[in-house]
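lol ok so funny story. i was supposed to be doing the assay writeup but got distracted and ended up predicting the structure for this chain instead. priorities right. anyway since i did it might as well share w the group, maybe its usefull for someone
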Amino acid sequence: MIKTFLFQLLFVSFSVLFFSFEPIHKITFLQSSSNKPGNNSVTTSNPDCNDEVTSISSTLYSELQLDQEGLSSEALTLAIKGYQKLINEGMVHNTKYLTIVDLSQSSRNRRFYLLDLEKMKLVMHTFVAHGKNSGLDQAQQFSNNPNSEASSLGFYVTKTTYSGKHGLSLKLSGVEDGFNNNAEARGIVVHGASYVNAARANSSYMGRSQGCPALPQNEFTKVIRLIKDGSVLFVYNPNTNYLQNSTLLNS
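and the output, tada:
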């Protein structure tokens, strides 16, 4: 009887000790009220609170060590803020993924970040092109105008795929008037390109597009299949005009 009791006590003590080692630094994601039952999509609680956005961003930035990956902390904070607002507006159907194109960095850096917000993982970190009229190595000029061949800043929601001149491609809907709402008319899409690759990182600048966030040939298919059908993609640059006049970020 005593042996049995001691065994049970030892088992309980071991169980408590084991579970006490579970990670404690985790971001809690809650089901959005706008999501349908059974949907695994997620959002953060109290999305209109700037303090919470900052807290979540700080935790995510630290947990994934995104500073070591070169991502701007401001880019992440703004991305999460816009992501939450777009979910509240019912515009996001694939809330698992958040994509950030950090155009504050050199084109020779891996400045494309695909985050899995359910599993708290950096799923993809790779090269991405900017528009040829945005600059050489560094993107400095941005445009929403047709035929500008420049990158457009702001938030996009991914749409459906199609097969075009670049093969599998992903349509993007620019949701910010005056900054990227002409994306579909301009044919701004996610696609693969031979001029975007690790070898070009050793040159003076990466190959440039006509405004599309073009990805390496060996990675674009995986990215498109993950983020298609209603996820958020944010193209960031610390551009004063955008930061001060984006309705999505300042409302």
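The chain is about 30% helix and 20% strand. The CA atoms of residues 195 and 207 lie 5 Å apart.
back to the writeup now i swear
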